[in-house]
Design a protein that fits this description.
Strand content: 15-25%
Distance between the termini: 39 Å
Number of strands: 9
Strand order of the largest sheet: 1-2-3-5-4-6-7-8-9
CATH topology: Rossmann fold
Number of helices: 6
Helix content: 25-40%
Order of helices and strands: EEEEHEHHEHEEHEH
CATH architecture: 3-Layer(aba) Sandwich
Length: about 260
């Protein structure tokens, strides 16, 4: 099995996609909010899709925007996507396995315990499920009439950025990625984003980082950046792992906006 084959998914598995309109979060006031679920390797994956309020009849480009460890599709820092929706993009987020509506305290404890006998196996399976969930989410959302399936990009924070580096490497559909607070060397070698990120090229990657990041060492960030191929760019902002300044979020949006042609 090749590295990329670990993240292959069964296209014949029914998506069993369901959607319902609901009220948008405050940060997305005026937008349309769609809650959805789909099936991925037998698991139900919940997600949220925010759509621009104005209906021109033309489909919207899509940004997958993913949360970090311990977060969910409703994490406050994902409010960064508010201006992106107002800028004309649809923004979708799913709950990663063991997060949000899919939380499981027992397995989360094993995942967080590096010396547990099952932690390496679980971490590989966690990454595999996460990447396949993202791929199937694109399958489902790209088929919606509101979405332009030819214009898809990816943004992620921390864990969502590290998994995003792998996702964008194994799935050719994202045209660009903005990865915040990411680094290499975390978890088993088989799923280290440094092994995959080079395959994102020739699609552009922006790495956004905090000078006072207390979680991801600068050496880990630079290792991931070095493993990436051109075109790539890295920017550092004064902030911590828990708090990126608005200018950093704006840099992410400009990068994705330009790639999507907005």
């Amino acid at each position: 099995m090749t590295e990329h084959a670990l993240f292959d998914h069964d296209a014949a598995e029914p998506l069993a996609f369901q959607r319902r309109e609901t009220a948008p979060p405050e940060a997305f006031a005026g937008a349309r909010c769609v809650r959805f679920e789909l099936t991925s390797r037998g698991d139900r994956v919940p997600g949220r899709l925010l759509l621009p309020a104005s209906e021109t009849g033309a489909p919207h480009p899509l940004v997958l925007l993913q949360h970090g460890a311990g977060g969910s599709m409703e994490s406050p820092y994902l409010d960064a996507g508010g201006p992106w929706v107002r800028g004309g993009a649809a923004v979708a987020t799913i709950d990663f396995p063991l997060h949000g509506e899919r939380s499981n305290a027992k397995f989360s404890a094993v995942l967080a315990a590096p010396n547990h006998a099952s932690s390496e196996t679980l971490r590989i399976e966690f990454a595999r499920q996460s990447i396949i969930d993202l791929r199937r989410t694109v399958d489902a959302l790209a088929a919606l009439p509101e979405i332009d399936g030819e214009r898809i990009a990816y943004g992620g924070f921390s864990l969502g950025a590290m998994l995003g580096a792998v996702f964008c490497a194994v799935d050719p559909r994202p045209c660009a990625a903005a990865l915040a607070l990411a680094g290499g060397g975390f978890g088993p070698d088989a799923i280290d984003p440094c092994r995959f990120v080079g395959a994102v090229s020739p699609r552009p990657i922006l790495f956004v980082n905090a000078t006072r990041d207390e979680t991801v060492p600068r050496a880990a960030t630079e290792a991931l950046y070095q493993a990436a191929q051109e075109p790539k760019k890295i920017e550092w902002f004064d902030g911590s792992h828990q708090q990126l300044p608005g200018v950093a979020l704006k840099a992410m949006w400009i990068h994705l906006r330009d790639a999507l042609g907005l």
